[in-house]
Amino acid sequence: MPATDQDWASAYARQALSDLDAREKLESTGAHKCHRLHFLQMAAEKLCKAYLTTSNGHNKVRKTHAYVERNLPLIARNFYRATNSGRILAWEISEIRKIARQIEVLAPACDDGGTRQDNSEYPWEDAQGNVRVPSEYNFPNLDDGPANKAIVKLIRLIRTAADAYV
Amino acid sequence: MRSIAKKTKEETAETLAKIHYANEPNLKHIHLLEPVNEEDPRDPIKLLEVVEGTLERWIEPIAFPADPARGIEYPVLIVEVSPKEYLAIKNDTNGLEQHGWSLGKELLAN
Fold this sequence. Notes:
By secondary structure, chain A is mainly alpha-helical. Chain A has 6 helices and 2 strands; from the N terminus they run αααααββα.
C-alpha cells in the first residue's frame, strides 16, 4: 500500500522535531551560529511541508522550495486559534513573518532573486568579491540570541504544530 | 589598567528580564530558576517566564547562547509558561524538581 499524505505529514513533523532537538544540543556545545540557524531553518521548512502535505497532498509540495515565509504566519494563526489558552497578537505575527523571511533565505536554494547569497551551508561571494564562510559570518539579519523573544515563540510554535502532525 | 568586572549571572538575568519586559506586552512574571551556579560560566542562566496567551507546553526549556553584545555573557535557558501553568508550578514543585530546579527570586520590569 503506498504511503498516504498523513504518513508524509507525520514524517516531516517528526524530522522537524528532531531538527529542533539538534539545535538544542548544539547550543550547549558552543557551535557556530550558522549551525544553529541551519537546524532552525530545516525545522521550519519541514513543519511547513507537514502543513502543506496535509492541506494539498504530498505530490504537490515535495518539489517546492520557498514556503517558510508564506506559511509560518498561517500556521501560527491556525495553531494559536486552535488552542484554548493560546492567543497571538498582531505584533507577534509580524515578528514571526520577519523571522520566517530571514529563515527562508538561509537555504542555499533561496537567494531572494540573487540578492541574498548568504546562507547557513555553503561559502558565497559577497558584493565586494570576498568569499564568505558561513561559520565565520554573524548573520546580522537574524538575531537568534536570548534577547529575542520572537525566537522563543517560533520554536514553541514549531514544536506545537509538529506535535499535532505527528 | 583597571579591569572591568563581569556581571554576575543574577545581574545578567536582571538585564535580560528588563529587555524581555520591554518587548513583550503579555509577559506577566519572570523568575530566576535555581540553582544559579556562578562558578561555572558554561552553566546557563535559567528563566521561567509567564506569558499570557502562550501555547501551553508545560516545562520545556529552550536554549540560547551567550550574547555579549547585549550584555548577556552566559548561555540562557528560557522556560515559557501560561499563567495557568505558573499556578500549577507554584502549587506543585515536582515539575521543576524533575529538572533539578526550584523557583527563585522574581525579576521585575524596573
